[in-house]
Amino acid sequence: MELLRFTTAGSINDGKSTLIGRLLYNTSSIKKDILESLSATGDEDELNLAFLTDGLRSEREQGITIDVAYKYFSTAHREYIISDAPGHFQYTRNLVTGASNVNLMIILIDARNGITEQTKRHSLVASFLKVSAVIIAVNKMDLVGYDEHLFTHLRDEYLPIGEKLQMHDIRFIPISALFGDNISTPSGKTSWYTGNTLLEYLETLAILYEENTSLRLSIQCSIGSIYLGKLLSGKIMKGDAIAIYPGGRPSTVETITHNFREVNEAYAGQNISLSLTNDMKATRGDIISHSHDSPVCSTNFTAEICWLDPTTPLETGKEYFLKMHSLEIKCRITAIKYKINNDTYEKDNFEGAVLVNDFASVNIQVKRAIAYDHFTSRQTTGRGILIDEETNKTSGAFVITGTSGQYDYANLEMFGQ
């Protein structure tokens, strides 16, 4: 059965948790004992669906979601994993984490409040992560009399934002998460709306599978001519002509082992071992690909970064640990090219510091040449995180946007041993 991953985003009290609770309730995904507990906490004995995801007592007391909650449900057509991320500005980094591997983002807008600063920021996150599809769910339509003109105005106001951020698949749905309007069945109160319900769109969305693209196997370790790793994308077969990058050392696949048995081919997501026709030196994090479809190799690249550290700003020249799939290597940010203005999405000349939840374009230099792809081509080998080696905190999440210098080994003495 197909699996669809999606996340919800919106300002505080826009109804994210209620929406998820409604989806779980309408698909009969709530156990009877939990359903009874929800009924006991709601006003006038009504279901408080938000409590399904706002499970922590501190969240209930504050009336906000402060962590990323994951929920699962299924229908006859698909299985679903939902990440409900916080709405407040200071938790934008949680949304970046929750949306890092989704097929779809649902951005909620309170019909009474319209497009807010957080709406713009959440849209920037969707663009940053190249989320392939976005639903703008205009919620709480029950509180504005299911006004068609208001819905149309909000849609027309948002379209230039989507265009500027190059978001190509956007759908607009008027909903009431509280009462279930246009969630799983069409609402008679919005007879002017002729599009799909939210669940219909989830059921019919075409899922883009990166796994079916180019071969990328991340090496975890090697013993002689045996190489162990995870197949990130594509497939590999006995007899394939492959190469190990960086370096492009050619070889041929002799055997493939998966789950302790020899197989003729292997697919994305599997952990496998390979024996090759010749013994070649490889380092953890190197990439095996088909020789005709190689990754980029360099010591320098440009990236868009979202800074995640709430206490320490980004520092150029400081050493960080860079992590991508099984790769771990020291790096430094050598330059900050620009910051991205959250209101206008313009590329502002860099001034001041890059602080938590800021987005910027940077140049990154690693200690030795690595193999990677541009994020727009292949996400699994085009994204990563930076870790502060002093505090062991995750400092930033980045996506690779360009290359600066093939095999540029100059000035690498700046790194510590």
Number of domains: 3
CATH topology of the largest domain: Rossmann fold
Number of strands: 22
Gross morphology is globular
What is the SS-derived class?
A: alpha+beta
Strand order of the largest sheet: 2-3-1-4-5-6
CATH domain class name of the largest domain: Alpha Beta
Mean pLDDT: 88
Contiguous low-pLDDT stretches (5 residues minimum) are: 41-45, 56-61, 406-414
- In quaternary terms, these chains amount to single chain
SSE succession: EHHHEEHEHEHEHEEEEEEEEEEEEEEEE
| CATH H-level superfamily title of the largest domain | P-loop containing nucleotide triphosphate hydrolases
Question: What value does the Rg take, in angstroms?
Answer: 24 Å
Task: List strands and helices in order, with pairings.
Blueprint: E1 2-9, H1 16-26, H2 32-41, H3 57-62, E2 69-74, E3 78-84, H4 92-98, E4 104-110, H5 117-128, E5 133-139, H6 148-164, E6 170-174, H7 198-204, E7 216-223, E8 226-233, E9 235-237, E10 241-245, E11 249-258, E12 261-263, E13 265-267, E14 271-276, E15 287-290, E16 296-307, E17 319-324, E18 327-340, E19 347-349, E20 359-372, E21 383-388, E22 394-403
Parallel strand pairs: 1-3, 1-4, 4-5, 5-6
Antiparallel strand pairs: 2-3, 7-8, 7-15, 8-14, 9-13, 10-11, 10-15, 11-12, 11-14, 16-20, 16-22, 17-18, 17-21, 18-19, 18-20, 21-22
